[in-house]
Amino acid sequence: LFCNITSSTNHDMAFKGKAVDSKTVLFNLLLCLVIFYSVFYMIASVCFGAFRLDHFDGLIPFDFKTEPAESNSKYLVNLLSLELTYFCSGLLFAAVVRRRVWDYALTVTLLHVMITSLVMLEFPTVWQWWLALGSGLFLMICNGQLIAYFTCQSDQIYTSFSIY
To answer: Keywords assigned by UniProt (predicted)?
Structure first.
């Protein structure tokens, strides 16, 4: 299949897409980061209220040190906030970037890990946190790419995939 794509008689590129300038990419990345953390704090505040916790922790997006246990309400709020944030952010990223949601999702997640390490002054080693982050990233990519695919079907990049 790949050989058929690259060995076409008119020597067109396999993927026809417009090059995006660096300013647009950086602006979209900044916008995605703002969306991600805004959604995170909004969902976290709703979850804190729903679980009737006494103290809203402003470090919730970066907290990987909370004891992972089913009976720990703070851990459940952190986990639920993380997963719902990734789910919702993927949908919103699709509206912002329209293509390559997976690229922005990976980049925002890598930046989130770096920011988390800087804020907590420690690299996260808790496997439950990494599992939650990975499953959230998977949700974000799947939801975002599906929304982008169905809303941008008229774009050339998506219609070229449908013939294969």
So the answer is: Membrane, Transmembrane, Transmembrane helix
